[in-house]
C-alpha cells in the first residue's frame, strides 16, 4: 500500500467517524444512558434514608429537566412532543411503582417530573429571547 493510498483511506475513515460521532448522536447516546440509569433508580429498591422531607421530588425534577435537555439536543423536537413523551414516561413510572411492594405511586412525583420539563423549556425560551444576535454587519 502506498503512502498516498494509505492517507486517502485514513481520510475516508476519519470522515466516516465524523458522521457517526456528531454532537446530535452523542446527545442521543447520552439520552439512552440517562433513561437506563433513571429507570434503574426509580424501579430498584431504595437503600438510602430520606433525611430531608420530599428530597425525592428534587430528584424527579432534576431527572426530567436533564431528560428534556438531552431530548432537545438529540432530536430538536417541538416542546409538546417532548412534554408528551416524558409525561407518558412519568405516568408509566408511577403505574409500575404502584405495583412494586417496595415503592409507591405519587401524583406529586408526576408534578415534579412535569415541572422539570416545563422549567427546561422556560429557561430555553428565556435564553433564546435574550440572546443577542451574532450577526456581523459592516456599516458603509
Automatic annotation (TrEMBL):
Key word Transmembrane helix present: yes
Residues in VanZ-like domain copies: 27-127
Keyword Ligase: no
Pfam families: VanZ
Domain of life according to the entry: Bacteria
Keywords for this protein: Membrane, Transmembrane, Transmembrane helix
InterPro entries, per the entry: VanZ-like
Residue stretches spanning the membrane: 26-43, 55-73, 79-98, 110-127
Protein name: Teicoplanin resistance protein VanZ
Amino acid at each position: 500500500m502506498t503512502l498516498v493510498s494509505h492517507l486517502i483511506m485514513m481520510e475516508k475513515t476519519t470522515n466516516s467517524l465524523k458522521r457517526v460521532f456528531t454532537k446530535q448522536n452523542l446527545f442521543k447516546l447520552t439520552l439512552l444512558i440517562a433513561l437506563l440509569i433513571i429507570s434503574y433508580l426509580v424501579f430498584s429498591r431504595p437503600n438510602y434514608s430520606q433525611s430531608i422531607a420530599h428530597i425525592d421530588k428534587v430528584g424527579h425534577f432534576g431527572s426530567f429537566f436533564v431528560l428534556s435537555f438531552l431530548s432537545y439536543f438529540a432530536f430538536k423536537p417541538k416542546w409538546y412532543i417532548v412534554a408528551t413523551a416524558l409525561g407518558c414516561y412519568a405516568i408509566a413510572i408511577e403505574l409500575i411503582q404502584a405495583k412494586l411492594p417496595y415503592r409507591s405511586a405519587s401524583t406529586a412525583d408526576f408534578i415534579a417530573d412535569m415541572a422539570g420539563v416545563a422549567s427546561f423549556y422556560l429557561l430555553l425560551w428565556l435564553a433564546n429571547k435574550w440572546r443577542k444576535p451574532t450577526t456581523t454587519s459592516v456599516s458603509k
